[in-house]
Every structure is written in structure tokens, then in C-alpha cells.
Design a protein that fits this description.
3-stranded antiparallel sheet; two-stranded antiparallel sheet; 18 helices
């Protein structure tokens, strides 16, 4: 109810209403583009190819594209090249001192990094587009001329560039993170198809109603757990010393530092699945090869023993990116220095290095709990679908991303409303 009230209050504010409508309009454009096929494609052959590989590698890419990949539309590459580009630059920022220095230069440095991210995105999109057009989809082309293939490549690259621009426009003029909302829209758009497929499987007797009910209960528990972890905080107590300035005494009050349990949000999950897509991307470029067969068997959730290898790799990558992104988001040294400059200290902990070590220990424990939770939630539904033969396609990874993006978007809306003296539902 609180969420609905916040939406109603936001709608009553002209500026907020304009931003909400702008965001929805951009997402509608994304969904419309997701149904526009690239030129020179034989639709019947395309449908036959994906029906024959419905449970193979193809399902992994449809997660971010919202079905655009299987329909080979202008947004078939989705926003994946941009995410991969962001991963590359963030890893390089830690490894290269000049990039790290540039990242600390504030808005100007971030602008340059964003520009480089766009360039790398276009290059990666070009490589993928060439691989798909001359590799995976070469047998479904109605026109095999070089010109037709170049047109398809340009269309796919332009589609990814347009999605990147769309996300940036949402960041500037809408509500929430544009790239995350595009992924969210793609995931949510698959719900009707997943429900329809599940109903057909129940009618055919391949899936039992009990399995579906258990899966739904499990999904609800996961959503509740995600919300609790996403909104959970560890309050580190802080005491400010009394000081006399002239004839007045300042300080002496108690406060706390709110450290989020999950500092990284849904970023580790998105980054992990993006890297897990890399072998499949290469396999798509060389279909019907030994490498493609190897990837399908050993590096996907639909293969065997690939489901277990995928399970382990997913957990390891999520844990790595949770720690990596958490270390970038929170700096214990800066927190300790700010406390010291304002005359604050943690009761029982000496200022300086001991404070830094204490905050680091607390953050490490919180990050560990968050990483384990995210990795389990992202992986268990995959195994559950494997055991129960459910073909829902809205597993743990999808739930984490969808719920996390929804919470972040509502927080963004609430922050703007709090500035106008409105109370939101996230307290």
C-alpha cells in the first residue's frame, strides 16, 4: 500500500509526472523496437532454428533482450555490449593508475570514462553483429549477398547504440537508472510467455501442478529475501565529542553510520551473467563446431554436467563482483577521516587506523553475507527448474535484477519526493 501511495503522490506533482511519463515512453519505444525484425530474414527458418534449440544456449541471451534475440530484431544484441564495456573499464580502472586518477577527477573524469565506454560498446557490438550475421544466423537469411549482410550488421550495431542513448536519456530526464530499466523491461516482458508455456506443459502432463505451486512459493520467499537484504543496514554507532567554541558548546550527541548489507545492489548479478554469456557469444559465431558443442554441454545451465559448472561459476563471479563493487562504493579510510575531522569516534575504538580496520571488518562481513545470499538466490532456481523440468525462464537471476531495479527506481522517486517534503514508503 505504501508503494501505491508513493506512486499516487508522485503522479500529483507535475514535474514527477513528467519524468514518469518520459520513462514509460522510452520503455515503450524499447518494446516497440524489440518487435521490429532486421531486414533480409526468413521468418519461418528462424522460427524452426529456435524451436529446435529452445532449451539450449539461446535462452541465456533472451534474458536481457526480452525475446529480441530469438526474433532477431533490431535490438537483438540488447544492451549486453554496454555492460561488458563497463566491466572492462571498471576492471582497468583498478589496474591502471591513470584511469584511477581520471575516475577521481569528478564529473569531468566520469564524462571521459563514459565516452570511452560508448566507443568500446560500439566495437564490441560490431564484433558480435558480424559473428551473428556471418555465423549463427547465416542460414536464415533470405538474401546472402555481402551488401545484405552489411546492412544487417549496421542495423544491429545501430540498435545497441540507440539503446545506449535511450538509457542515458532516462538517466537525464526520467527516473531511475536507464540501462537497468531497459533490462527490467526485457525481463518483465517475458512473464506472459513463461506463464503460457507453463500452462501448456501442465496440460500436456510434462509438469505437475505441485511443482508449479512449490516454485511460486519459492519465488515469493526469494522476493521477500531480496527486499530484506537490499534494504538491510548495519548501524555503526558514532559518538561526537563535546567542544567549546566561544561561549557555546557543540557536539556530544550520538549518531550512526548506516552501512548497507548489499552495497553493490544488482550489479554483481548483471556482471556475472554478462561474463557467463561470453563463451556462448563466441560459440554463436562458430555454430555447428566442436567449441559450440562444448559450450552447450559444459558451460550452460541447460547442459549436463554444464548445469553444475554453470552453478559454480555463477556463484564465484557473483562473490567476486560483490566484493569488487563493494570496495569501490565504500572507502573505510574516507569514512574514518570524515569522522575524525568532525570530532566523531566509534565507542571503544580509537580514531585513526583502528577505526579504519574496524569499519573494514564490518564491511567485509556484510559483503560476505550479501555475496552468499545473491549467489544462492541466483543459482538455486536454475537447479530447481532443472530438477522439476519447469520452463519458466524467470529464475533467480531474473528475480534479483527485477526486484533490485524496482527498489532502486522507487528509491530514486522517493528521494526526489523527500526533497519536496513528501514521505515515501521506503523508510
Amino acid at each position: 500500500m505504501g508503494m501505491i501511495q508513493t506512486m499516487v503522490q508522485a503522479w500529483k506533482i507535475p514535474e514527477m509526472r513528467k519524468k514518469i511519463l518520459y520513462t514509460l515512453f522510452m520503455l515503450v519505444i524499447f518494446r516497440l523496437g524489440s518487435n521490429i525484425p532486421v531486414p533480409c530474414i526468413d521468418r519461418s527458418q528462424l522460427a524452426a532454428m529456435f524451436n529446435a534449440n529452445e532449451s539450449g544456449l539461446f535462452g541465456l541471451f533472451d534474458l536481457f533482450s526480452g525475446g529480441s534475440f530469438s526474433n532477431f530484431t533490431i535490438f537483438a544484441l540488447s544492451i549486453t555490449p554496454y555492460i561488458t564495456s563497463s566491466i572492462i573499464l571498471q576492471l582497468l580502472t583498478v589496474a591502471i593508475p591513470k584511469l584511477e586518477e581520471l575516475a577521481r577527477q569528478g564529473q569531468e573524469g566520469q564524462r571521459k570514462i563514459a565516452q570511452w565506454t560508448r566507443y568500446i560498446t560500439v566495437v564490441l557490438a560490431l564484433i558480435q553483429a558480424v559473428g551473428y550475421t556471418f555465423g549463427l544466423f547465416r542460414n536464415v537469411l533470405s538474401d546472402n549477398s555481402v551488401f545484405a549482410k552489411l546492412v544487417i550488421v549496421c542495423t544491429l550495431v545501430a540498435g545497441t547504440a540507440f539503446l545506449m542513448w535511450l538509457g542515458e536519456r532516462i538517466n537525464e530526464n526520467g527516473i531511475g537508472n536507464g540501462i537497468s530499466l531497459i533490462i527490467f523491461a526485457g525481463i518483465v516482458s517475458r512473464i506472459p510467455t513463461s506463464i503460457s508455456r507453463t500452462v501448456k506443459n501442465i496440460s500436456a502432463g510434462t509438469v505437475s501442478i505441485v511443482s508449479v505451486i512449490l516454485f511460486c512459493i519459492f519465488a515469493v520467499l526469494i522476493v521477500v529475501g531480496i527486499i530484506l537484504v537490499q534494504e538491510g543496514t548495519r548501524k555503526v554507532p558514532v559518538q561526537y565529542a563535546k567542544r567549546v567554541v566561544g561561549r557555546k558548546m557543540y557536539g556530544g550527541q550520538s549518531s550512526h553510520i548506516p552501512l548497507k548489507v548489499n552495497q553493490a545492489g544488482v550489479i554483481p548479478v548483471i556482471f556475472a551473467i554478462s561474463l557467463l554469456q561470453l563463451p556462448a557469444t563466441i560459440a554463436y559465431m562458430v555454430p555447428n563446431s566442436g567449441f559450440a558443442s562444448f559450450v552447450s554441454k559444459y558451460l550452460t545451465s541447460s547442459g549436463y554436467p554444464g548445469v553444475w559448472i554453470y552453478f559454480v561459476l555463477n556463484i564465484m563471479l557473483i562473490i567476486f563482483f560483490t566484493y569488487f563493487y563493494g570496495s569501490i562504493t565504500v572507502n573505510p579510510f574516507e569514512i574514518a577521516e570524515n569522522m575524525k575531522a568532525n570530532g566523531g569516534f566509534i565507542p571503544g575504538i580509537r580514531p585513526g587506523k583502528p577505526t579504519v580496520e574496524y569499519i573494514t571488518k564490518v564491511i567485509t562481513r556484510l559483503t560476505f553475507a550479501s555475496a552468499i545470499f545473491l549467489s544462492i538466490v541466483a543459482s538455486l532456481p536454475t537447479l530447481l527448474q532443472h530438477w522439476t523440468n519447469l520452463s519458466i525462464g524467470f529464475g533467480g537471476t531474473s528475480l534479483i535484477i527485477a526486484v533490485g531495479v524496482a527498489l532502486d527506481t522507487m528509491k530514486s522517486m522517493e528521494t526526489q519526493m523527500v526533497m519536496r517534503n513528501y514521505s515515501g514508503f521506503l523508510k
